[in-house]
Amino acid sequence: MFLSAVLRSAVSQTARQVRSLHQSAARAGAGGIFVHRDTPDNNPDTPFEFTEENMKRIDAIISMYPTGHKQAATIPVLDVAQRQHGWLPISAMNKVAEVLEVAPMRVYEVVTFYTMFLRQPVGKHFIQICTTTPCMLCNSDSILEAIQNKLGIKVGETTPDKLFTLLEVECLGACVNAPMVQINDNYYEDLLPKDIEDIIDELTAGRVPLPGPRNGRFSCEPAGGLTSLIEPPKGPGFGVRPDL
Questions:
Q1: Above 50 in pLDDT, residue 26?
Q2: What's the DSSP call for residue 210?
Q3: End-to-end alpha-carbon separation of the chain, Å?
Q4: Which residues lie across from 182 on neighbouring strands?
Q5: To pair with 209 at 20 to 30 A between CA atoms, which of 36, 39, 53, 235?
Q6: Taking the CB of residue 126, how many other CB atoms lie within 10 A of it?
Q7: Is residue 78 pLDDT above 60, yes or no?
Q8: What is the Cα 72 distance to its own chain's centre?
Q9: Which has the closest alpha carbon to 122: 163, 169, 182?
């Protein structure tokens, strides 16, 4: 009985110490709850109209799909809307539904499913840090801690000047370059805490740091250098039987 109580206490204490997982989307990512609630900044009357330039983009996107299948363009048209506005208020979703000639619910279903679509405002520089297993094993927690200390915010929060929003996400597909973050459309890889601090400083100063690895390697080449494809190509016919 005593051993059981001690074990329960130890497990409980360990659980409290473990960093919370999968909370970002509930705070800021895909917008939290899946049921819309009108707010002063997000309601059907929130002003939203596509710019003339973006309408041309949308027409070009829709033209790539068969006649009568405008709905197939839902994701790329939502992307245009989000890039124009920074996030997707419900009025933007309604406008997308109007342009694609579908019921608004068809658009809501897509927006609430894909975490790339943001139903709450984010900062100018949207930092998404991967903490899935490969990045975690490469000490992504130290990168997360450096970001939080540098910006004075926690996961799911935005800085008071609206410059940065921090989100913890699942695998971003750059495991070989772990640890890494995505900031807007750019990947910053092979990071050390000092690297992410420098990146934030550059963004704060209005500059866009060069994306990619920060440890000097090219793309996702082996960290120890190339081990294959190290000779010039042999050319046509190499290895082919002479009678063929």
A1: no
A2: P
A3: 80
A4: 128, 187
A5: 53
A6: 20
A7: yes
A8: 22
A9: 163
Give the tokens for residue 98: 């109007």
User: CA 64 from chain center: how many Å?
Assistant: 26
CA distance 95 to 84: 13
Whose CA is closest to 82, among 31, 34, 45, 33? 31
DSSP calls for 19-88 = PP-S-HHHHTSS-SSSS---BTTBSTTS-----HHHHHHHHHHHTTS-TT-GGGGHHHHHHHHHHHHSS-
Is the distance from CB of 75 to CB of 110 less than 8 angstroms? yes
Q: What radius of gyration do the chain's Cα atoms show?
A: 23
E strand map for 108-227: 125-130, 164-169, 181-183, 186-189, 212-213
User: Model's pTM, two decimal places?
Assistant: 0.78
> Which tokens is 159 given?
């800085």
